[in-house]
Every structure is written in C-alpha cells, then in structure tokens.
Amino acid sequence: MQPVSFSKVIITDNFWAPRIKTVSNVTIPVCVEQTEVKTPRIRNFEKVARKQGEKHEGIYYDDSDVYKALEAIAYSLKNHPDDKLEAKADEWIDKIAAAQQPDGYLNTYYTLRKFEGKWTDMEKHEDYNAGHLIEAAVAYYNTTGKRKLLDVAIRVADNIDSTFRLQNRHWVSGHEEIELALVKLYHATGQSKYLNLADWYLQQRGHGYGKGMIWDRKDMGVKYAQDDVPVKDQKQIEGHAVRAMYLYTGAADVGAAKSDAGYMTAMNNVWEDVVYRNMYITGGIGSSGSNEGFSVDYDLPNADAYCETCASVGMVLWNERMNLLTGNAKYIDVLERSLYNGALDGLSLSGDRFFYGNPLASSGNNSRSEWFGTACCPSNIARLVESLGNYIYASADNAVWVNLFIGSNTNIKLKQGNVKISQQTNYPWDGKIEIMVSPDTKSKFPLYVRIPGWAVNKPVPGNTYKYIDADNSEFTIKLNGKPVKYELNNGYAVVNNYWTSNDKITVDLPMPVRKIQAIDSVKANQGKVALQRGPLVYCVEQSAEINNPTDIVVSKNSVFTSAYRKDVLGGIVELKTNMRDNSVLTAIPYYSWANRGKSNMQVWLPLSK
C-alpha cells in the first residue's frame, strides 16, 4: 500500500476545510511572527551568515521550529497558494542556506559557539534539527519544485553520513527524528545511502553507546530514552513519548523500504504495548510529566496527564505507517482517535492558542497559550492539519483504500487506469458517507472501506476500554442505492466490483452515544465512564448549569440525546441528559474545551452504583 499524497487530494469537508483555512490564515502567520519577530530563531541564522562573533540566543534546538514552520508553509502553499507567504519562505531559505558551512554542517547553536562541542553531546539535538530540515526541504520541493532547501538538506545529510557511518563511529540520537526524515530523503532522491544511514541510526540503539548521557539517567525514577535493547528486540514502550513515536515511525519506514521483518515484528509488539496498556481514551500518550512520556502500564492519571500534542501527532504518523505495512484498519482506528481528540485538542478554534499538554481533567488551572519557550507543538499541529490529505486514501496496483471519512476528491492511478474518488459526508457529526467511484474505463478492482472499531462495539483495540451499554445498531453499505455484497477483511468492508463512472457507495455508520469503562487496572478511572459518539470523545465543562463537573454522577441507564448546535464552539454536536435533580448535563467534544477560558473539566465521570 502507498498513501495518496496530500498534494493529490482536495479537501472539501465542512469539518476540516475550515480548520485548514484557519491554520493557513491564522496559525501559520502566528508561527512566522513568533519565529521571525518575537523570538530569535531566524536571527540566529542571520548571525551565522554575518560571521561577526555574535552569541546564540534561545535554546539549542530552536532551529527545528524554523524548519517545522517551513514544512507547514509548504503544505499550506498547496492548499491555499499565497505569493507573499511563498516569498517569506524563500527569504527564510536564503538565510538558512547562507548559514550552512562549507562541509554541509548546519546548526546555529554550535556554529555561533565556534563549533565548541560539536557532535560531542548526543542530547543536543543536532540530528533532530537536521531531520526537521530534511522534512521541510522535501515538502517544499514537492510543493514548489524549488530545490534550494532540498540541496541544503542533501548536503546536511551527506555531512552526517561522512561524519558517522563511513567511519563506523557510534552515535545514539538523543531525540529521534532523523531516521524518518532520511527515509523521506531516500524516496525524494532515490539515493539508497540515505536509507542505509537511517538504518544505521536504528542499529546504534541498545548497545550501550549512549550510556552516561544526561537523557539516559535513571535517577528521575522513570526511563527517558529508547535505548535499553536494540530496536528489533524492543517489546515495551518506554521513555519520552514524542521521541518514541518518531523512532518507531522511522523504524516502520525502514522496515517497509528494506522489507525487514525484524523491524515489523518489533513495531507490532511495541504498538500493542502502547495501545493495549498505555493509551488514553483520547488517543493521547505519555502520562508522566517528569520524562514527558511513559511510566508503568495502566498508569493513566487524568488531571496530571501529560499527553503532549506532539506525541499525538506522532501517533498519527506511526499508525499511518503501520497501516501501510499491514493493511490492517485497527491502526487507522487509533490514528483517527488521536487525530480528532488528542491532537486536535492542542489547537484552539481560533487558531492562535495552543495546548502543550492535554489533560483529561482540570480544576480550572489550564488555559491555552500564545506560544511556548519550547515551541514544538504549534508548528507541529499546523503541519499535521495542513497535510491531512496524506491520511485519507491509500492505493496499490489494483486496489483503493478509504481510511478516513473526510469530504474530498482525488485521482488515483491504478495499474489498469485512473480512477476518480470523491467523498461527501458530514462526518464526524453524521455517520453517512457517500463515496463516488469513477474509473476512466469500466474496470474491476476492490474498494476497501474502513469500518471503525467504534461502530462494531470495540471502542479501542485491546481490552483496556469497553462499552458498558448495549447497542445493536448495524452499519449498512449500499451500491447505487441497493445492498451490495462485501467481505470484512482486517477491519475493511471490501467491495469487489466492476466499476463504472459515478458509481456510488453509501456507508451508514450508526452514531449512538456510548458509555465507555476502563478495566480496573486503570485505577484513575475505577467507577467512572467516558462518553463517546462516533470518533469523538466528550467531556463535561464548567458552565452556568454545571458549577463543578467533579460533582456529576452518571447513571448506567442515563439516556443521552445529541443535537447539532452551529452557534456553539464553532459548530458541534452537544450531548444532553437529564439528571436526578432535574438539571441537564451537557457534554461537548473534548477537542473543544477551554476555548471559552479557564474552567473545570472532566472526561471521566463517576458512575452511580
């Protein structure tokens, strides 16, 4: 399977198209202003080019935020062409190129320190910065056809390759990212040395080469790195959540490109450990603030949940790769959960406020911020939303997969000819999806339509979460208005048909309000339930009717109604139920909380006995 590139997908969706527009019109300009005016990130590149002995400002990994912003801009230029924004990107690229050293090295922190300590501290993010540069360069080249930043990235990668791999010098990246970026560079250039360098990075882990580095200290009570055992031998998730996601995305990429079953087996084992025992109902990961990551199985506190926005972005990246490797829809189920809940919560409805961490409960002390000292999340959520088209469709020589239900259209080239695919839907508010299939000429091929686990009484893969209320509603699939024969295969309904122009598949996924309970091993949620409708997890936020959500008690027999309110929080489906005291309990989608200021909030609600 190969993903259909966002550049070939036009999103017309009523839910996502306005959000993409907001990111283009609001979020990216905020990132540009913060990067160029309010913080010294661009200024550091200018200092390097001037060669006047000026001091570095900011944090040693700040270069990466410039590159992530550029990547978001690259996607935005495809979605919403903007000559002024493209000129600004070109201006930044000129400054980045001017800061590159004759041997290809590029890092403003060390260059302004006259290279003192260069490539001596694995934690100092030199290759992490390089990875984000490579990702930005590939994205900008794919959108604009301009090679300047790509050529800079190639020289950076060549410098790393000659510094390490050819000399057989050991190095364990403190913050993974370079691995997945090098695979992108391999695909963009066709140069196998970049794939081999990515593999080399993976093979460095788990042999003791990183011992003694600050990020490998165990005195903080929890692990931080993913370096205890070689990657192919890893079975359990540990350490920093974002770093882990980038590592495993890179491992899946290398495993796919090299057809290496060792990486594939390891990724499946680690994935089960994450999803079965260490994932929040929102698709967020990373319960511990001390290491910004994982602690022990089933340790999933709510108010203290770290759940970094970047980690949820990483879950989207990793689960897409796992789906492409295996053809199993369960990975898209998790991707969707992280996308609509854990990741989307990190971006305000206005597009100019952000969450770094995403707790599942609040006593009114959480608010969205304009920016952060460590500013990885704003540009990360921006690049995810702008590149959303990457995750909707996939294809092979003679098959098409519909993974996400997002109003859109695309043209997919199959072995036997082109086929136009379009979707119309009001998802996630409504479960009706219409898929138009129009091949250039009549042809037979299988169409794989994902049937979400939440629609077949399995909210999340594994046994940690389950529905406690019975629902016998069944999904339906029709072709041109009539029932059609299909087979269920790895979470997909497979319709193998002779397709002609404007054939219409109609999928109807029931969206009752469901109550979810966690197993007793999740101590934080014992005796509590969470609410879900379709792919969305709901929460109760302080309001005029509800002073303190922690006082709410839900009955197992509580009946919730749902209704679309276009005047509330940008347009949402609200859930309501009558309480014993005749008050009305209102729940809103988790992603939308804290958009009206600080307030108390609960995802998990006490269940009456």
How does the SSE layout of this entry go?
Layout: E1 2-3, E2 9-11, H1 16-38, H2 41-50, H3 63-79, H4 83-99, H5 108-112, H6 126-144, H7 148-163, H8 178-189, H9 192-203, H10 241-258, H11 261-277, H12 309-326, H13 330-343, E3 361-363, H14 376-386, E4 393-396, E5 399-402, E6 408-414, E7 417-425, E8 432-439, E9 443-450, E10 465-467, E11 476-479, E12 482-483, E13 487-489, E14 492-499, E15 503-508, E16 513-518, E17 528-533, E18 536-541, E19 561-565, E20 572-578, E21 584-589, E22 600-602, E23 605-606
Parallel strand pairs: 5-9
Antiparallel strand pairs: 1-4, 2-6, 3-22, 4-5, 6-7, 7-8, 8-15, 9-14, 10-16, 11-12, 11-15, 13-14, 16-17, 17-18, 17-23, 18-21, 18-22, 19-20, 20-21
CATH topology of the largest domain: Glycosyltransferase
Shape: globular
- Sheet having the most strands: 10 strands, antiparallel
Beta-strand content: 15-25%
What's the number of extended β-strand segments? 23
Return the CATH architecture of the largest domain: Alpha/alpha barrel
Distance between the termini: 48 Å
CATH class of the largest domain: Mainly Alpha
Residue ranges: pLDDT <50 for 5 or more in a row? none
User: How large is the radius of gyration?
Assistant: 24 Å
* Tally of distinct domains: 3
Estimate the helix proportion, in percent: 25-40%
Overall pLDDT, averaged? 93
SS class:
alpha+beta
SS summary, helix count: 14
Describe the oligomeric state of these chains in a short phrase.
Answer: single chain
Organism: Mucilaginibacter litoreus
GO molecular function, one term: hydrolase activity
Pfam families: Beta-AFase-like_GH127_cat (PF07944), Glyco_hydro127C (PF20737), Glyco_hydro127M (PF20736)
Keywords: Hydrolase
